[in-house]
Design brief:
The complex is a heteropentamer, with 2 copies of chain A (about 260 residues), 2 copies of chain B (about 260 residues) and 1 copy of chain C (about 300 residues). Chain A has about 260 residues and is mainly α. Chain A is about 85% helix and about 0% strand. In chain A, helix 3 packs antiparallel against helix 4 and helix 9 packs antiparallel against helix 10 (about 220-250). The two termini of chain A are about 15 Å apart. Helix content of chain C is about 45%, strand content about 20%. Chain C has helices at about 1-10, 30-40, 40-45, 60-65, 75-80, 110-115, 130-135, 155, 170-175, 200-205, 210-230, 230-240, 245-260, 265-270, 275-285, 295-300; strands at about 10, 15-20, 45-55, 70, 85-95, 100-105, 120-125, 145, 160-165, 180-185, 195-200. Chain C is globular. The chains are: A mainly alpha (about 260), B alpha/beta (about 260), C alpha/beta (about 300). Chains in contact: A-B, A-C, A-D, B-E, C-D, D-E. The structure holds adenosine-5'-triphosphate (2 copies) and magnesium ion (2 copies). One magnesium ion binds near residues 54, 89 and 165 of chain E.
Chain lengths: ~260, ~260, ~300, ~260, ~260
């Protein structure tokens, strides 16, 4: 209990201080709300449009979570596959970079044709955007296994499956979690951007809310929606962080205080 | 090289013919080395630091390959590499597993049931004197304790060929003698083939049925000595004159090989 | 592809099920469709219409048969046809193109050419046909051209900033925030493609002529009704699009009236198109090298 | 020489095979070019618009490279700062996630307001998008230093600067390079997306080229521009990979064949 | 606990008062331990595996802190922790540096010039017999070689207080005796304070001016023995009766402490 409190208060204090500063600056300089709204304006907008924000967040969350889940799954599998043989890594690793460099706008028409507007396409966007960090970090982790332990497994004739689950994956976990930390934020942004290109207004997520609020110059609402997206990212990040801490606390240097 | 008398009988369990090992960067570690070990022998390997003892064991285990020469492991008594266990020079424990789960690993890899694994692992841990640390993680153990965990992990499989690289180097003399005696008793009972690297002449003499001494890099065998000690051994034998005599033989060879 | 044709021609028990894809949220520019839906005009024609609003890719979806009807602009239709996509225009909501360039009144510009020939910044979406047209017509272009980001913050913030707009949208929002927008319609510069056009696939039209005719008839009634009294539909759309306030809805509905109802439509009916205008457009696009293969004007549209 | 050839041919073979497969599938199924163009269509479009593609790639490269460079610099500094004290990590690490979850469209107006349209804003976009992976991986690397070595440095009274440059950074290098691999692709996409919102048409980069080609249904050109972006990403990735290999080859398990 | 005769003179260089160390999870390792070491003493520390020897050294080095009790390091002769060197039980080399740069590290951290660093490091490497491996990286060294690198790294600083945790455990007896003799000569010349953990009684007797023997965990000092050997020592002393006598004293205490 005291432990988790220690983890929570420093960012909370930072958060509050930053916002007070922001409010002050905006008020002092008299910046109009449509340009840069003060935290209080944003808060008011959030309260006014509470219901819409909530459903939008729900839609975006669903896509981000599903996309993130897919990334974890596929990223682990691909990372494992790439690490299994040097020539496989050489032949395919460079191409996984494509995933990152393809602008969603470019593949959006295909996505929409195959999956239609809405959840499926948006989920795939979140997935594509957040996949590579999981692959890269899994691969790096699997490649850094203690060579002595690798020898041990070889000696005891451990098959590839056992070596994977009992040696490589556990050894790669600290790296994998770094990948998941990065992927958590990217999944959210992937979902938001995915909505720009393949969302539907009938299930308006945060991305489309940002766009339509922005078009109507409701800047405080834009910021509120962005804040909701950030909180979503933060929540996902916190979950990843906590699971990482929990799984590594016994043995890995990075989990120690 | 004199042919050793056959102890376990049959063909050699390990045979190395004309082995040369040169590492990248041109470090010539072993040169034209010949060695054959009968099934059931307890071979002690001595030699100066860096002469290639660990390299030799790795070659036997198939974890490294010679630049030339042939390594052959297996005989009628010990069919393949299936029954090898290896105590590395460093403990190499899995940091994410506690002592008991580290020790149980080889059984797990063999697919044994959880309850049998636990039992065997517990017994092995008790033997190395770590019963009260069996739930701790490697980062909570002292250096000697880690090494003992690694030892227990090797013994838990009841191997046919046991490769041990200075397994007792980081232990106090009493614990070490106790484990020496246990190991000898185990060998008398099970007659597995053992290749045992050590820096302690006393230990080599106490345990081995044969000892080889290697020269400085590139490692060659400068002595290949069949033990004159009786098979029945106990703590008492350390004070017998024949024991001292054996030690002297090895010391001389070591001095000669290190020159 | 055959599968989509099949599904588009199936008749459910209470009439043909068809889908219309709009390219933005419910706004006055779609008022007629929502009116038709709301007043049951589609139902009267035994049509079961679903309206979806999505931000992008209407062309591809209609072309692939994922929807029977969509909304496009005339230049987009010509481009699509020149790429071999069989899409046909059916009903043009805007006889006069509602796109314009919005500048600040204070700059004292008299025509679009002034905007392009003066230093400053002009924000437009990349790839728009009319931008090429304007650039060719009003050389030398001195303004910096940048991508439009769907927001009017930049416009509000800097007096030498101009941007593309829908006459029914951005200028109204800017005025509400106290700016002094001045709008030049693109149409006045000589480039005036129909806009807000209901399209369908050529083979759908061929195989389901009746459905198409019914749909357009109901749509026309819807627009008639919306032009006469937009209140009810505005309220309904306002509940789907809360980012736009009621005042803006009303203002936009009023502002677009002259673009929709012209002498032409009063004579031939709302939404009807003429061969000459298509011909002109195709010629213009060809001259701008926007298209390599020119479709014939006749294949681009029908007036069902 | 033979070594680098070994690294180059597997992806090359994969590349060629994939494209032959793609061409075949597209031809066999008779997929129209506006939907999915065949490699030959894309190649033709690339040849037709060679000059435009080249200048667009040059513009995007500049922004991506500058943004990437900034990310490396700032990411290392922030990662180092976060790792210096547990409470700093606690207070600020979560907020670095914001960087990832804020959609560029939302902050673009601010960017443009401060930096104007063009290179500076696009560079900052590339920077923002690619920053977090560098931070996360640097931090993870710095936290996994061998505790024995840390003790050694403590014992010899090494100050924070020396500990940083002689222990923590070298030990973190393998992790840092994983971060850079991820950042390399993200910098490219950051530049491309940055152009959507803050580019200018006189210096049209790949992002605007993609958008305008996409609006005009010139799908082969879209794919050609995407390919150019991917090649750019690939080049950056290869540079990072090679430097990583070169710096770690002597000692790190991951760099061994 | 008998007060040791003063060798270096002055106040104790290291003093531990009522030290208790209990690890998370309740492992009580040291309990109410008192120890004071005069400047210039060579103290050997013996004890069963896991009794807390390494923990003791870490406390002295300030790398760990007692749950209760006081650790004080420094005297007129040796003002602070500035002059400490530590040979850990594991070599802990920097994998990204070759031997010479690993050895030069402490000098680098002190800010010495590159050329002086190189020179001192080279000399130290030669002393531990690794001259021909000075360009190799840690992953290219044998276990004993790594440990010798770590030793060279500690000696290169000419420390005032030298903490050594089984530094020669993984070396062959000849190399070990050579290094023992070198270390003793160095101590005679420089009279630094040394805390030396070892499992080899012979080594402890040969090197130390005083030896303590610890009991099983929780570690207490069961013997605190001032050496009877003359200060002038050489290889020859190992065969003197007084040497054997000393060994017997320590053996007994060890047996007693391990019981
Ligand atoms: N990967 C490698 N690359 C280059 N040289 C190596 C490599 N591995 C071992 N060596 C060298 O080979 C020689 C023998 O090493 P090995 O580990 O077999 O020695 P050892 O007899 O076990 O020594 P010790 O008793 O110190 O453990 C050493 O000189 C070592 O430096
Ligand atoms: N971080 C830790 N958490 C829990 N227990 C620990 C921790 N570190 C050490 N211990 C325990 O403290 C005891 C003493 O450890 P220490 O390393 O001091 O032993 P040692 O005397 O050096 O043994 P060895 O001769 O085997 O190196 C051991 O029982 C060990 O398990
Ligand atoms: Mg060895
Ligand atoms: Mg210890």
């Amino acid at each position: 209990m005291r432990k988790s409190w220690q983890v929570i208060w420093p960012p909370l204090v930072t958060f509050v201080l930053l916002h007070i500063l922001w409010e002050e600056i905006v008020r002092r300089l008299g910046v109009p709300a449509w340009k840069v709204p003060a935290p209080s304006d944003i808060f008011r907008a959030a309260v006014d449009r509470w219901g819409d924000l909530l459903t939008a967040t729900a839609h975006t969350s669903t896509a981000a979570l599903l996309g993130f889940g897919l990334s974890v799954l596929v990223g682990l599998i691909v990372g494992i596959a790439l690490s299994s043989m040097k020539w496989i890594e050489r032949a395919f690793y460079p191409f996984t970079v494509f995933l990152q460099t393809v602008p969603l706008v470019a593949i959006a028409p295909l996505l929409v044709l195959w999956l239609g507007y809405g959840l499926a396409s948006v989920t795939v966007s979140a997935f594509i955007v957040s996949l590579f960090p999981v692959i890269a970090n899994t691969l790096a982790g699997m490649r850094s296994v203690d060579p002595g332990l690798r020898d041990l497994f070889r000696l005891y004739g451990a098959g590839p499956i056992r070596t994977l689950f009992r040696l490589k994956l556990p050894a790669a976990l600290p790296n994998v979690f770094t990948g998941l930390r990065i992927a958590s934020g990217l999944a959210v942004i992937g979902a938001v951007v995915g909505e720009f290109v393949a969302g539907t207004f009938d299930q308006q997520g945060l991305g489309l809310l940002v766009q339509s609020a922005s078009r109507n110059l409701q800047t405080p609402l834009v910021f509120a929606a962005v804040a909701a997206a950030s909180l979503l990212g933060l929540a996902l990040f916190a979950i990843v962080n906590f699971s990482g801490y929990w799984m590594l606390r016994r043995w890995h240097a990075s989990a120690r205080t | 090289m004199t042919e050793p008398v056959q102890i376990g009988g049959g063909a050699p369990a390990v045979s190395l013919r004309g082995i040369t090992r040169r590492f990248e960067g041109g470090v010539l570690t072993l040169e034209n080395l010949n060695l054959s070990v009968q099934a059931g022998e307890f071979l002690a390997i001595l030699g100066p630091s860096g002469c290639g003892k660990s390299t030799l064991l790795r070659l036997v285990a198939g974890l490294d390959h010679p630049n030339s020469g042939e390594v052959h492991v297996g005989s009628r008594e010990m069919p393949s590499r299936g029954g090898i266990a290896y105590v590395f020079q460093d403990p190499h424990l899995m940091p994410w597993r506690n002592v008991i789960d580290n020790v149980a690993l080889p059984l797990e890899l063999r697919g044994e049931s959880k309850s049998r694994r636990r039992e065997s692992a517990k017994a092995a841990i008790e033997k190395v004197g770590l019963a009260d640390a069996s739930r701790r993680y490697p980062n909570q153990l002292s250096g000697g304790m880690k090494m003992r965990v690694s030892l227990a992990r090797a013994l838990v499989t009841e191997p046919e060929l046991l490769l041990m690289d200075e397994p007792f180097g980081s232990l106090d003399e009493l614990t070490r003698q106790m484990l020496d005696e246990q190991l000898y008793a185990l060998w008398q009972e099970r007659r597995m083939t053992v290749l045992f690297v050590t820096h302690t002449v006393h230990e080599a003499v106490f345990l081995s049925s044969r000892a080889i001494v290697m020269s400085r890099r590139p490692g060659r065998i400068v002595l290949n000595h069949q033990s004159d000690l009786p098979e029945m051994r106990g703590a008492w034998i350390r004070t017998e004159p024949v024991f001292m005599q054996e030690c002297r033989v090895l010391y001389k060879a070591l001095e000669w090989g290190s020159a | 592809d055959r599968r989509s044709t099949d599904s588009s021609s199936t008749n459910s028990g209470n009439g043909s099920a068809v889908k219309l894809i709009l390219n933005w949220k419910p706004e006055p520019e779609f008022g007629g469709f929502y009116t038709a839906q709301e007043q049951g005009l589609y139902k009267n024609h035994a049509l079961d219409v679903t309206i979806e609003s999505a931000p992008e890719h209407v062309t591809q979806l209609v072309a692939a048969g994922k929807a029977q009807f969509g909304i496009m602009a005339a230049d987009e239709i010509v481009t699509a046809r020149s790429q071999g996509i069989d899409i046909v225009a059916l009903f043009a909501v805007y006889q006069t193109n509602p796109q314009g360039i919005m500048t600040h009144e204070s700059r004292g510009f008299k025509e679009i050419g002034d905007v392009l020939r003066s230093p400053g910044t002009l924000a437009v979406q990349p790839g728009l046909a009319y931008v090429d047209f304007l650039e060719k017509k009003y050389t030398p272009v001195r303004t910096q051209i940048v991508p439009y980001d769907y927001s009017i913050v930049r416009f509000m913030a800097s007096p030498d900033f101009s941007q593309q707009c829908f006459i029914t949208a951005e200028p109204l929002a800017a005025r509400t925030q106290g700016a002094d927008p001045k709008v030049f319609l693109i149409a006045d510069s000589g480039f005036n493609p129909y806009a807000g056009i209901v399209v369908t696939r050529g083979d759908f039209l061929k195989n389901n002529r009746k459905t198409v005719e019914d749909f357009i008839a109901a749509t026309r009634q819807g627009w008639r009704s919306y032009l006469d009294n937009p209140k009810a539909a505005n309220a309904m759309m306002g509940s789907l699009n809360k980012e736009m306030d009621a005042q803006t809805f009303a203002a936009a509905a009023e502002a677009q009236k002259p673009l929709i109802e012209t002498d032409e439509t009063r004579e031939h009916g709302l939404g009807t198109m003429t061969n000459e205008r298509w011909q002109t457009l195709i010629g213009q696009l060809q001259q701008m090298k926007k298209i390599t293969k020119a479709p014939s004007a006749g294949e681009c549209f029908v007036n069902p």
